[in-house]
Amino acid sequence: MPGDDATAGPAAADPPVAEMAAASLAPAAHPVLEPSRHRTFIKSIVGGSATVEELVGRKVVVGGWVKTGREQGKGTFAFLELNDGSCLANLQVIVDAEVFPLSHLVATGTSVLVEGVLKKPPEGTKQSVELKVEQVLEVGPVDPSKYPLPKTRLTLEFLRDFVHLRARTNTISAVERIRDELAYATHTFFRQNGFRYVHTPIITTSDCEGAGEMFQVTTLFSDAEKVEKELKQNPPPSESEIEAAKLLVKEKGEAVARLKSSRASKEEISASVSELTKAKESLAKLEERFMMKPGIPQKDGRIDYARDFFGRQAFLTVSGQLQVETYACALGNVYTFGPTFRAEHSHTSRHLAEFWMVEPEIAFANLEDDMNYAENYVKFLCQWLLDHCREDMEFMVKQFDKTAIDRLKLVSSTPFVRISYTKAVQLLENVTDKKFENKVEWGMDLASEHERYLTEVIFKKPVIVYNYPKGIKAFYMRLNDDKKTVAAMDVLVPKVGELIGGSQREERLEVLVDRIREAGLPLEPYEWYLDLRRYGTVKHSGFGLGFERMILFATGLENIRDVIPFPRYPGRADL
């Protein structure tokens, strides 16, 4: 009807659906994404497979840090020696003054991202190719008056005070590339030999070595500080407040009982029960606060570790061996590769508080099998460096140890000598051309001077010493039939001495229990380890390689603090 249409008016019109949809789909204002840039590694330019002819004319984006920079041609252009860490070699970069202010680029340590064209340098220059910059994309400036790593040669000891910057030096960057290659080679070797990689815990309740030099993991101190702070801000309730709260709970309980006996309504009883519950909760909180005491919790005059985070004493691991054995007894051949810790107050050039261990464990393997795997693994690592890290190894030869590459060749290609501990002692006792600092006698633990004499003087090659006295080896090593020695072996190499320590594990339950007791260790923390012998025990063996020692051996460096990115030792834990 006309009247109906007239009364509807504008309010009855269809909603602007199209306009609303367009508005809802309109993009919100946000920053435009910076386009991705494909950065070319310097290694692929100066050390890649491409020929100079193939490189010349190619446009590339390169990023790195200025090793040296100098303005030339009365400030019309600058030469930059750029390194991006992909290799030891630098790329020479030429920047004209009209492209970018040269004073912002030439300081050592400056980071730059540049785009340009590769070209052939003039005849007589050492570079085979250089980069002519067309555009400077990014600059991370440096104040040369404050930069702590000048162009002059710096000692490794000096660099330990700048662990956050020392990777920019030739030596530490070369060491890190060697370390990376050895890590990759480790995973490659075990993968090729049918091993599975197992991540073992860093926090443990077992002492693998039995030496007791472990970092403790505890929250008792921080918890005690929190309690002390809490008690200062909110003093604990008095005994009278506790008694009043107990009386209130009693009264509320009696009220509930009366309502139930008088057959009160369900709503009344529920309300009363709710009040009783609140009174009980309040009492529990008061009693909990009443029991709070400042200081470390104690029981029977000793620290009460039952109130610690894990409900018992816990430590940073000294080895993943015991734990990885559990997987060897299920998956067969396994290995773990990770950080380990030792709270040893030693400042020698061979000790760290945090270091990395490679620890394979081999099911159904005896000591001979163990020695075979260890020898093959070390040879594999040495050959890997010769094949994949030649430039950095040549740098080590030039700067630190002229025999480094020859040593790798020797170890990778020479069968290891294998002698018993008893034979090794006899050989050392007969030495007349050298006086050892540590007296040689059966039952002693061979010192580094003895190990190096065996490898560097007597045999002039790697040596595996086996069947050590049980008194100087760990409880888990298999007791030999003579009851005096254990089926243990150490791989000794020139330069560092012991590189690997391993053994056949004790698979006999009764013997293992006796060995744990002889070591003065409690059985309770090792019950799970004993279960491996109770349920389907199996002959198995394994070894551990100190990763940093392997790097020392390869590079020829003298101090272990220089072959780990962030060294931790007594008094120092930078970053």
From TrEMBL:
<feature type="domain" description="WHEP-TRS">
    <location>
        <begin position="241"/>
        <end position="297"/>
    </location>
</feature>
<keyword id="KW-0067">ATP-binding</keyword>
<dbReference type="GO" id="GO:0003676">
    <property type="term" value="F:nucleic acid binding"/>
</dbReference>
<dbReference type="InterPro" id="IPR045864">
    <property type="entry name" value="aa-tRNA-synth_II/BPL/LPL"/>
</dbReference>
<feature type="domain" description="Aminoacyl-transfer RNA synthetases class-II family profile">
    <location>
        <begin position="334"/>
        <end position="565"/>
    </location>
</feature>
<protein>
    <recommendedName>
        <fullName>asparagine--tRNA ligase</fullName>
        <ecNumber>6.1.1.22</ecNumber>
    </recommendedName>
</protein>
<dbReference type="InterPro" id="IPR004364">
    <property type="entry name" value="Aa-tRNA-synt_II"/>
</dbReference>
<keyword id="KW-0648">Protein biosynthesis</keyword>
<dbReference type="InterPro" id="IPR012340">
    <property type="entry name" value="NA-bd_OB-fold"/>
</dbReference>
<dbReference type="GO" id="GO:0006421">
    <property type="term" value="P:asparaginyl-tRNA aminoacylation"/>
</dbReference>
<dbReference type="GO" id="GO:0005524">
    <property type="term" value="F:ATP binding"/>
</dbReference>
<dbReference type="InterPro" id="IPR002312">
    <property type="entry name" value="Asp/Asn-tRNA-synth_IIb"/>
</dbReference>
<dbReference type="GO" id="GO:0004816">
    <property type="term" value="F:asparagine-tRNA ligase activity"/>
</dbReference>
<comment type="similarity">
    <text>Belongs to the class-II aminoacyl-tRNA synthetase family.</text>
</comment>
<keyword id="KW-0030">Aminoacyl-tRNA synthetase</keyword>
<dbReference type="InterPro" id="IPR004365">
    <property type="entry name" value="NA-bd_OB_tRNA"/>
</dbReference>
<dbReference type="Pfam" id="PF01336">
    <property type="entry name" value="tRNA_anti-codon"/>
</dbReference>
<dbReference type="InterPro" id="IPR004522">
    <property type="entry name" value="Asn-tRNA-ligase"/>
</dbReference>
<keyword id="KW-0547">Nucleotide-binding</keyword>
<dbReference type="GO" id="GO:0005739">
    <property type="term" value="C:mitochondrion"/>
</dbReference>
<keyword id="KW-0436">Ligase</keyword>
<dbReference type="Pfam" id="PF00152">
    <property type="entry name" value="tRNA-synt_2"/>
</dbReference>
<dbReference type="InterPro" id="IPR006195">
    <property type="entry name" value="aa-tRNA-synth_II"/>
</dbReference>
<dbReference type="InterPro" id="IPR000738">
    <property type="entry name" value="WHEP-TRS_dom"/>
</dbReference>
